[in-house]
Amino acid sequence: MRDVVVLDVESSLHNHTVGKFKAHPQHEDNWIVWVGARVFSGTDGSVLKDTSVYRFQDKDCVEVKVPSDDPSEFLLVGHNIGFDIHYLCNANNAAREQWIGWLNHPDSLVWDTQLAEYRLSGQSKTSPSLDSCCESRGWATKPGRLKEYWSQGISTEDIPDDEVRPYLRHDINVTSKLFSDQLAQAQEKGMLQLLQIEMKARLATILMEHNGMAFDSGAALRESVEKLEPRFEALQVELLDIGSKLTSLPKVAVLPNSPVWLKSFLYGGWAKWKEQHPMLDDDGNPTYFKSGKKKGEPRMQWREFTAELKPNSPVEWTGTGEDTLRKVVVHKKTDPDVANFLELILEYRDLNKQISTYFKGYSQLTWADGMIHGNLNHTVAATGRLSSSNPNLQNAAHSPIRRHFKSRYENGVLLEIDLSQIEVVAQAVLSQDENMIHDIVNKIDFHSKRAAFAHHADYDFVKEAAKDEAHPDHKVWKQRRKDAKIVSFQKAYGAGVKKISDTTGLSRAEVQQFMDAEDANYPSVPVTQQLWIDTVTASTAIREDRKVSGVLYSPTRAEYRFYQQEFNGHLSYKPTEIKNYPIQGLSADILKIILSGLREVVRSINDSNVFKLPVLIVNTVHDSVVFDIPPGESVEWVARRLLEHFTQHPVNVLKDKFGYTFNCPISADAEAGPNWYDKTGVQA
Known about the structure:
This protein is of the alpha+beta class. The chain is globular.
């Protein structure tokens, strides 16, 4: 039985160079100022072995050792445990190599009380603080004024010891109580297996954060200056020219960056602007400076002008965000010149984001080791999905910025393993729709099939026509397949006919045709969705001072809560959430199961001595995981080992741990390349 080590560290706040997190553990001048630990013998906490709170005087004397050389002998407990582990692996901890070894070891185990609270609450408490966990249980919250000191920029080592010591002791004591309380809740709810998997997955993502992704900030900045910024400046000129012609306004009055101006342009309203004009005398003649540096130059004054703009968009829309502009662009009634103008605005906005958020933004978040060490968040999404921040690498899925993420090894490669249409697979298993399972097993191209049955055409014909550029009907069926793909994805997320019509440009009749055909071919899907809605509606309860649905449970015993919202004067649930959460949630849990066993697979790969340098886990995005592979001729071998884990491990765990037969194959693809953008398929 493992000892329980409850641990908490308080660090310095010296990062003022990369990002906004002053306590970031990657900064060379940040160190563990205080460490607190409480050790229990056995997970029942029956025997208290040791409690200690210790202050290090400076960064050169920090040494926090691993409690045991055998990771299987202890369970590390903490609130937002990733922060503490990153500091244990910090360059200023003399025992960092021990902790890095522990982090990589498949037998190491943690219990993150923040993560447990989030899951036990049905994902309703996002990133819960320790104080909020105490408040919900009627326990005392943190003493002292440490947050006030930190908010004033005072680093922890400069705060009086008698302020820090009770604060840290409180955290240790409360975290210990919280762990015991959560353990009892998990056992009562039947969620212990899920939380153990979640905690192992958290160790994998902490390892990814620690390893980071190598980023060539110099090359990114050069591309921004030489390629993106010139196009951005040219677009500014082009937008003013086109906007002036469309509105008959002077260029100075065209403000495509202004939501207020754009709203007037699209839906009708007033444009206001200022221009400088010569100042006139009483006779209406220009006046001039008679002395000084401007002698002989005309005197100028600002004059305000207004003009009424006619509507250029259907009146049912009012926004100016990206989604709304795309609706206007694809809408069949939109004037081509207006649509072109809006397309340029969308390109302008995208370029602005590429330059500021990605090319310059990522460069500013690159550490001295040449890596971006972002955050992978387990406690944010209502479905249990992982998210990314500081920076958000998930948002850059199709951006050329990925070309600047490279292997840290000379001549190394990045390998990405991606689950194939896992949400479709989850939908098929949850609904047990025989036709959908059949199509997955037989590797049917779902989007071609949906286009075929929506237009009463032959599947093989549509698949060939949509794929073969030489086919005489290629353009028609390629577009129809694309339409079917958009409709099916939005339908799976719970979108209705009107919303899909608005965002695709398809008529409501065309959307309805796609949806009716899909429901007819996969009849168990709408039946299951209605069952979920009925279950939620029939089991309403009052929780947390808000109206909440009864709980829907996943095969992993994850629970999903649905809050009533007011619509047209009465409370009801959002069908889109009820239709979507179970599918998203099971997909998320499948990825977590994969992550929970990933350190063991990577360790076995590295122990095989195929490579002189270690294979590293460096990131996860949606349904994929990225690995940094050292140079060699064995990428295919690594991909084969990983693909086997991705496709077989979740099925085995669901059966062995949860008694759930996953009667649909899980498939995955492998791609590798010199960078994260230019990748090709790996034949494993």
